């Protein structure tokens, strides 16, 4: 392989890309958290049907899932967040 040195402009562009990627870490982590939360809610959507009586434990679980993003304002908090345990159906 041929090795070509980067120009100062290319180095600056790469550094700017790295900074932009790091700046988006929180948004990506929140998107991942919401995606998992939405999947867990979807698994239990049937319990919210009008012909099903939802247990108190299931209602509490679903509310905890809906509230999971509340108060998350740093990447560290998002990464440390644990999902509630799904009750037995």
- What is the CA-atom radius of gyration, in angstroms? 21 Å
Please give the alpha-carbon distance between the first and last residues.
60 Å
Low-confidence stretches: none
Shape from CA axes? elongated
Structure description:
The protein is elongated. It has 89 residues and is mainly alpha-helical. It has 4 helices and no strands. The longest helix has 19 residues. The model has no long low-confidence stretch (mean pLDDT 93). It starts with 7 loop residues before the first helix and ends in a 9-residue tail after the last helix.
Compact description:
The protein is 58% helix and 0% strand. It has 89 residues and is an all-alpha fold.
Write the layout of secondary structure elements.
Blueprint (H helix, E strand, L loop, with lengths): L7 H16 L1 H19 L12 H11 L8 H6 L9
Q: Main traits of this protein?
A:
single chain; 58% helix; 89 residues; mainly alpha; 4 helices
């Amino acid at each position: 392989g041929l090795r070509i040195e980067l120009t100062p402009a290319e180095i600056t562009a790469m550094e700017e890309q790295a900074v932009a990627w790091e700046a988006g870490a929180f948004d990506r982590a929140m998107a991942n958290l919401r995606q998992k939360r939405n999947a867990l809610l979807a698994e239990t959507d049937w319990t919210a049907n009008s012909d099903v009586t939802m247990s108190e434990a299931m209602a509490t679980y679903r509310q905890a899932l809906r509230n999971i993003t509340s108060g998350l304002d740093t990447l560290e908090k998002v990464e440390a967040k644990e999902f509630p345990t799904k009750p037995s159906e």
